[in-house]
Amino acid sequence: MQTYKYEIFTSILEEQIKSGAVKLGTRLPSVREIKEKYHLSISSVQNGYDYLVMKGLVENIPRSGYFVAFNQKETIPENTIKQLAVAKNSLFNKNLELTSTRSKAFEYNSFNSTSPTDILIPQKLILRKMQEVIREKGASLLRYYPLNGSLLLREKITERSAKYGCMMNAEELIITDGALQALYIALASVTKAGDLIAVESPCVFSILEVISNLNLKTIEIPLHYKDGFDVNYFRNICDENPVRAVVVTPNFHNPTGILMTDESKKELLSIAEIHQIPIIENDIYGDLYFGGTRPSNIRSFDKTGLVMTFSSFSKTLAPGIRLGWLNPGKFYAETERLKFSLGRSVTPIYQELMIKLLESNSYDRHLRSFRKQLEKQAIELLDALRKYFPENSYFHRPQGGYSIWGELPQNLDMEAFYEYCESQKILFTPGDTFSFTDEYKYHFRAVFADRITSESILSLKKVGEKTKEFLN
Ligand SMILES: Cc1ncc(COP(=O)(O)O)c(C=O)c1O
After folding, report:
1. CA 317 to the chain's CA centroid
2. Structural domain tally of the chain?
3. Are residues 126 and 66 in the same domain?
4. Same domain, yes or no, for 453 and 386?
5. 334 with 448, same domain?
6. Is the overall model pTM greater than 0.70, yes or no?
7. Which of 328, 363, 398 is the last residue of a domain?
8. Which of 44, 55, 135, 285 would disulfide-bridge 40, Cβ 3.0–4.6 Å?
9. 52: domain range?
10. Rounded to the nearest whole angstrom, what is the distance from the C-alpha of residue 46 to the centroid of ligand 1?
């Protein structure tokens, strides 16, 4: 799916550069040559080159032209994420304040909350559509809507997902109050207290909280920077333990931004099929890809209904729109019963709002520019972190989503580090909150949900440079 005119040439160049087909330092075709070859305007070609420069693939040398950048090859550390062994009880008591809310948060450079900030929410569009809904639907918005949600909304969601190869039937969907409710329903429908489930490690605090509330035991499956979810580790765990479900975020995992390959997704599914383990798939970030096309979800490969996929519009539109969906596969009956017990119907106004946004294509139009903006912010934040933090830190380049996973040297005084961050009004999410284990003491998550300003870069510079003084 091409979204910008310039992608006709940037996608080819990007592929050639990444595959090594054009060597580092090679001079690239001039703006005029590209213009003529692809019948583009000069400004489209320049925008395309700006995009490649922003991605760090190309360098612009004034009065000489565009060249394949020399410093783009990243060294990604091997096995930096250690393997975690045994099942742990779900004892989780970490501070919510560290991950999302905080009074006076507006005074901070909040690199810690994974949802669109006020300025990136398409407020005018949403408020206009809401007014239309109220005018058109009037008092009917005050009634109960169907338990599993408006049929028209479910149809709009399935039509959209079919475009990226995920064929679902509107009758199989349940509309929920956001993604976390969908996760709660999915997990509760296939497990009981004390059961053992598998989750990715690291794993976002909010998912761990749901697991904790359901009194489940977990085995944390390592995620590797290069290959993502460790499928072989999962296979061995399943051979030896009665795993009742596995919870994964295969597309732009929070906090690492890692995208699982289709091969890994299929392999995970085949292991789950052998042991009949339901896969609970969080696809909340799937639409937030940087470049290329929308990745597939595991549900697209599932023929037996073992995959329960869910998503919401909290990350792509606005977190205040409390509306998500769950496709529970063959576990529909139990999930419908649970949904009823958690609240009979999702607020009608949000359902009608989403119908309007999906019907008019405004949602996809918004996403196209939103993705570009997020990618720009990701690159700016990554550049600043890599530039200013101590040399033996590592910051993983995300392939989409909202966050960068960072790893600091193990001789760093983390208390002093977080204290200094606070003094500079910088909020990162401590690595500790991403596991039931103590594995991530020296990690943190940096979120690029907000515009990166010269002021925030300056604060990052101060923090990065000061960090060197906290090394023992
Ligand atoms: C991975 C992940 N899933 C789900 C959620 C919550 O989504 P929702 O606001 O739709 O409940 C979050 C954010 O808090 C998240 O990071």
Report:
1. 13
2. 3
3. no
4. yes
5. no
6. yes
7. 363
8. 44
9. 7-72
10. 37
Q: 282 CA to middle of ligand 1, Å?
A: 9
In ligand 1, the atom with minimum distance to the C-alpha of 253 is: 1
SS3 per-residue string spanning 313-368: CCCCCCCCCCCEEEECHHHHHHHHHHHHHHCCCCCHHHHHHHHHHHHCCHHHHHHH
Q: Give pLDDT tens digits for 345-354.
A: 899 999 999 9
Residue 231 and residue 150 share a domain: yes
CA distances from 399 to 15, 270, 295, 381, 469 (A): 15, 25, 11, 14, 32
CATH number at residue 384: 3.90.1150.10
Q: Are residues 59 and 106 in the same domain?
A: no
How far apart are the CA of 395 and the centre of ligand 1, in A? 23
Q: What is the DSSP letter of 21?
A: S
Q: Which atom of ligand 1 is nearest to the CA of 100?
A: 14
Residues 180 and 322 both lie in one domain: yes
Give tens-digit pLDDT for 400-455: 999 999 999 999 999 999 999 999 989 999 999 999 888 999 999 999 999 999 99
3-state secondary structure at position 47? helix
| Segments of the chain scoring below 50 in pLDDT | 2, 81, 83, 85-96, 99-103
Report how far ligand 1's centroid is from the alpha carbon of 246 (Å): 17
